[in-house]
Amino acid sequence: MSGAQPLSFHPALPPEEVARANFYGLLARLYYAPPDARLLEAIAGADEIEAEDGGIALAWRNLARAAASAEPEALREEYDSAFIGTGKAPITLYAAAYSIKYSNEAPLAGLRAELAALGLQRRENAAEPEDHIAALFDVMRFLIAEQKTPLETQQRFFSRWIWPTVQPLCAAIEESTHTAFYKAVARFMKCFLELEHSAFEML
Description:
Elements lengths: L14 H18 L4 H8 L9 H16 L2 H13 L20 H13 L15 H13 L5 H25 L5 H21 L2
């Protein structure tokens, strides 16, 4: 699992599911590593979102604007300063760190068991633990686009492993003095995942 992997889609996937998978794939890529010039150009030139919820459309527009004015080298420095740091990272991208019900080890063991049940496992050359937010987003992309998993299965994974991390991670990024571009990423992420949560609640 890795946010750097290219997208592939089930041939019968409806357009709205393709869009969901694309957003998860983009977020995985942005949190896996800082964007390069090609990705920034793609975001800046992407079509606007047409949605009843104006919040996500505005967040996407602001992300596109941020991408249009961003420099890859500056974003490498921002990413390293915010999410890697020296010693302990100012902002952690690991879901287990935001858990309040379990120890640091228990969530990772549970996640590994659930991934195994889904037929997924960590690549041998993967450097990051499975609870890295990029890996979790990539799992959602995979469940939607490649495995075409039932929504109920997607909901269980989302609710257990992604949703509890959204608010504290976004708040940490918003409050950080190390982030600029990633504030726009976090605002879009929050809007998108809030819509996902609302849709899953309707099942």
